[in-house]
Amino acid sequence: MDIKILVADDDEAIRTGVKIYLKQAGFVVYEAENGLEALEKIKQEKFQLLILDIMMPKMDGFAVSERLRSEGNNIPILMLSAKSEEADKVNGLMLGADDYLTKPFSPVELVARVKSMLRRFMDLGKYTNSEEAVLTLGGLVLDEKKRTISVDGEIRKMTPKEYQITELMMKNVGKVFSIDEIYEAVWHESSLGMADNTVSVHIRKIREKIEANPKEPKYLKVVWGVGYKMEDSI
Fold first, then answer.
1. Could you tell me the fold of the domain covering 134-230?
2. Dist. CA 198–CA 86, nearest whole Å
3. How many other CB atoms are there within 10 angstroms of residue 191's CB atom?
4. Short-list 100, 41, 119, CA closest to 73
5. Where is average pLDDT lowest: 7-16, 47-56, 124-133, 161-170?
6. Fewest Cβ atoms nearer than 10 Å: which of 1, 7, 89, 137?
7. Where are the beta strands (DSSP E) in the chain?
8. 174 or 90: whose pLDDT is higher?
9. Cα 116 from Cα 118, distance rounded (Å)
């Protein structure tokens, strides 16, 4: 199966370079020069990954990511930016991006990030017909085959990372995970100082989606000084 990747960046030189690197790695690459064009192409074609620049005309990368997630589109998103500030990275992750790459970047790192994201995302769909295909905790239900999470029968839209964190915690109810353990289990790389903000942002977003009162969580609880756990006494 061809793996199709959409590259959205208003810089033609960047688009061309990325397209060359990815085609050499065996991917089929499409281009968009602004956010609106990217959204239109996503409506017309099924892509396996979106490479999304932040600063674009008509609609920036943050807005595109937020729009896609609000519509329930869980396409993996790799954000590109000339900015290296942590606030921009956190903002991108909050709005649904799955990874972040700062310009300038090397072709080797770009291709490695893309392959890693695709591998993790595609692995989520490889489930067996075992009894563990549906995980249930009170009114919280995770269906591994459909890759859906619902609360009291209502489907909650999750980004791929939010889904993976919830899946990790629901498969280990009662176990306390440190922030570094969550990061390394879901991102499959050493935290290198990025774990705290990244994981905290995702936990907050998950709580907003599964908890009746995110400030007093019923399911996903903090263990102060240690990490997080999925409550086992519901």
1. Arc Repressor Mutant, subunit A (1.10.10)
2. 10
3. 17
4. 41
5. 124-133
6. 1
7. 4-8, 28-32, 49-53, 77-81, 99-102, 134-137, 140-143, 148-151, 154-156, 220-223, 227-230
8. 174
9. 6
39: its two tokens: 């959204």
What CA–CA distance (Å, rounded) separates 163 from 138? 18
What are the residue boundaries of the structural domains of the chain, listed by start? Answer: 4-124, 134-230
Rounded to an integer, what distance in angstroms lies between the CA atom of residue 154 and that of residue 26?
Answer: 39
Q: In the prediction, which pLDDT does 234 show? A: 67
Cβ–Cβ under 8 Å, residues 140 and 149: yes
130-165 pLDDT, tens digit each? 344 788 999 999 988 788 999 999 999 999 899 999
Q: At which residue do the structure tokens 């980004």 appear?
A: 159
Nearest-angstrom CA–CA distance, 190 and 213:
32
Q: Quick check: 15 and 31 in contact, CB under 8 A?
A: yes
Q: Say what percent of the chain tops pLDDT 70.
A: 87
Helix (H, G, I), strand (E, B) or coil at 141: strand
Instruction: Tell me what pLDDT residue 130 has.
Output: 38
Its CATH class, for the domain covering 4-124, is: alpha beta
Q: Measured between alpha carbons, how far is 129 from 64 in angstroms, rounded to an integer?
A: 35
Amino acid identity, residue 66?
A: E
Residue whose C-alpha is closest to residue 95's, from 185, 35, 7, 15: 35
Token pair for residue 145?
A: 């085959």
